[in-house]
């Protein structure tokens, strides 16, 4: 066994998925406080102070006050080395958010207790399901009036199609929030909101039958708790780690990230229940994270950290072995040996050069324009390719045309490069040229990014005309189907992507089903497996 087995086994790499404002940033910040990576609350992404700790690379990002790109944070807690893959929290999230989930081994789903399952959570959840990764649920903001607990669980089960196992159970909410009942120990962790911003919360555990005596809850609440737990024990499934591992059962926790309540309980259970880096598949075979030599795949490319240079950073998830700065590696898609220069890692609010990293870690390396999303890098003696990263469905489309046709060459170069980085997807009319193309994006902000970058980096002005399409489907069995003969709907448009694969765009969701019905044997897919 390699001498770094322990290093890999202590790693936990996960993403947090949520709808904006559910409390993802607050929860991340509390994790970092426990890990001692930051000293005070508010230093991760101070919306209020407009500090963009980890990704202040573009003017547009600063102007809008949001984070365009996802980042990675590493910290240590109780012997674990934890990598949190952050996903943009704004509604205008991008394809990068989805790709980030490809690098995670598990996901934490943060839900606002007053709102339940919201749109963005639903979208990100789909990607987790596709990957069959374990999903852990933190129901946040219990210090505010919450929806009925059974209703919330019911919604998760019905809307997301995953069974739930509440590890603890809330007593009241909002002004009547008294704490959380631990089903294993029969004890209640009583709520106080004095822990806000502190390093470690003081959480007191009290036997459930002592609550009234100690004036920590009234009799009615204790009776309700008793009834609810009885109902829960009778109705809900029992805990099954195997189902958790397969992403079919989500352990559920309750708390209040803002007041630092229930966060530590969650973190500790989560770290035990989640997995260390799992083997990933390359050329149909599993590569062992511990016993194989270094290997990694590129899941994100971030452009222009410095406005004066067209440099890019390629983010890689290390899948096996150990990485040493300066080591020679083999870039499989490029067919070349190279050294990864300036390998970096994010530590809370700073970026630093890494000397070594292990399976489970994420590193960002300087990319002179050689990497594409999904590329594999491995030890020089090896040659295999990790399964590619799917192309996710854009939801917004626009026709892009060049204002000054003399700049055609720069335009084509710029737009292709930006597409290669994965910020946009390019489509063409079946018989169209490159003067006028259709661009698809996951978040509308990417249109602004495209316009901004073409002007600033390539000196090209474009016109964007928004198109009404919202749904895209790849034709899975394109070789069996005559694309010209597909019986469509009035709001359907046929286009092709850069790989000349045919796709269908729709303005209405019901048209997708209708086209499916009208064309027997046509297989449509929401993701494209590259
Ligand atoms: P996000 O990253 O998921 O978008 O959410 P974020 O953590 O930024 O939280 C969104 C808002 O919800 C913030 O308030 C935050 O303070 C609040 N919040 C987070 N967790 C809890 C909680 O457990 N209880 C309560 N009551 N509020 C919570 P804001 O006023 O929008 O921003 P800020 O000015 O406080 O940063």
UniProtKB/TrEMBL annotation:
Domain of life: Bacteria
Annotated GO MF terms: GTP binding; GTPase activity; translation release factor activity, codon nonspecific; translation release factor activity, codon specific
Cellular component, GO annotation: cytosol
Pfam families documented for this protein: EF-G_D2, GTP_EFTU, RF3_C
Keyword Lipoprotein appears in the UniProt entry: no
Main location: cytoplasm
Binding residues annotated for GTP, in chain numbering: 18-25, 86-90, 140-143
Keyword Cell membrane: no
GO biological process, one term: regulation of translational termination
UniProt keyword list: Cytoplasm, GTP-binding, Nucleotide-binding, Protein biosynthesis
HAMAP family in UniProt: Rel_fac_3
Family: Belongs to the TRAFAC class translation factor GTPase superfamily. Classic translation factor GTPase family. PrfC subfamily.
Matches recorded under NCBIfam families: prfC (TIGR00503), PRK00741.1 (NF001964), small_GTP (TIGR00231)
Functional note: Increases the formation of ribosomal termination complexes and stimulates activities of RF-1 and RF-2. It binds guanine nucleotides and has strong preference for UGA stop codons. It may interact directly with the ribosome. The stimulation of RF-1 and RF-2 is significantly reduced by GTP and GDP, but not by GMP.
Descriptive protein name: Peptide chain release factor 3
UniProt organism field: Blautia liquoris
Gene responsible for this protein: prfC
């Amino acid at each position: 066994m390699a001498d770094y087995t322990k290093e890999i086994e202590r790693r936990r790499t996960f993403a947090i998925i949520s709808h904006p404002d559910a409390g993802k940033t607050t929860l991340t910040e509390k994790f970092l406080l426990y890990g001692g990576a930051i000293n005070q609350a508010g230093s991760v992404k101070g919306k209020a102070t407009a500090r963009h700790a980890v990704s202040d690379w573009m003017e547009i990002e600063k102007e809008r006050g949001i984070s365009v790109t996802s980042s990675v944070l590493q910290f240590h807690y109780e012997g674990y080395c934890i990598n949190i893959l952050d996903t943009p929290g704004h509604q205008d999230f991008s394809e990068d958010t989805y790709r980030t989930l490809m690098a995670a081994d598990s996901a934490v789903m943060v839900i606002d207790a007053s709102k339940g399952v919201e749109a963005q959570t639903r979208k990100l959840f789909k990607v987790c399901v596709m990957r069959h990764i374990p999903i852990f649920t933190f129901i946040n903001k219990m210090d505010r009036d919450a929806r009925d607990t059974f209703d919330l669980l019911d919604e998760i089960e019905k809307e997301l199609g995953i069974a739930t196992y509440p590890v603890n159970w809330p007593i009241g909410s909002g002004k009547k929030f008294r704490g959380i009942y631990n089903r294993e120990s029969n004890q209640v962790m009583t709520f106080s909101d004095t822990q806000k911003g502190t390093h470690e919360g003081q959480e007191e555990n009290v036997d459930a039958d002592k609550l009234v005596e100690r004036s920590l809850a009234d009799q009615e609440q204790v009776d309700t708790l008793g009834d609810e737990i009885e109902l829960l024990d009778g109705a809900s499934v029992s805990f099954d780690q195997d189902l958790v591992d397969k992403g079919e059962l989500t352990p559920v926790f309750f708390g209040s990230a803002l007041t630092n309540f229930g966060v530590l309980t969650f973190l500790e259970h989560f770290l035990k229940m989640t997995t260390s880096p799992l083997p990933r598949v390359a050329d149909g075979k599993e590569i062992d994270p511990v016993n194989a030599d270094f290997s990694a795949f590129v899941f994100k490319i971030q452009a222009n950290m410095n406005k004066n240079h067209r440099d890019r950073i390629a983010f890689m998830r290390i899948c096996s072995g150990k990485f040493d700065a300066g080591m020679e590696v083999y870039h499989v898609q490029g067919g070349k040996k190279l050294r990864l220069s300036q390998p970096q890692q994010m530590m809370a609010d700073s970026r630093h050069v890494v000397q070594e990293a292990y399976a489970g870690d994420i590193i960002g390396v300087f990319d002179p324009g050689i990497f594409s999303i999904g590329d594999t890098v491995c030890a020089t003696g090896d040659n295999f390719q990790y399964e590619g990263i799917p192309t996710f469905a854009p939801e917004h489309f626009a026709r892009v045309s060049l204002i000054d046709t003399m700049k055609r060459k720069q335009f084509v170069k710029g737009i292709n490069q930006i597409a290669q980085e994965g910020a946009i997807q390019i489509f063409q009319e079946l018989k169209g040229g490159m003067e006028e193309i259709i661009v698809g994006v996951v978040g509308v902000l990417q249109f602004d990014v495209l316009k901004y970058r073409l002007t600033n980096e390539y000196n090209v002005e474009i016109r964007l005309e928004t198109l009404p399409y919202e749904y895209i489907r790849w034709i899975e069995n394109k070789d069996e189907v005559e694309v010209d003969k597909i019986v469509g709907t009035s709001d359907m448009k046929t286009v092709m992507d850069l790989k000349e694969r045919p796709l269908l765009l729709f303005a209405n969701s019901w048209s997708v089903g209708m086209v499916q019905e009208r064309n027997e044997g046509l297989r449509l897919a929401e993701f494209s497996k590259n």
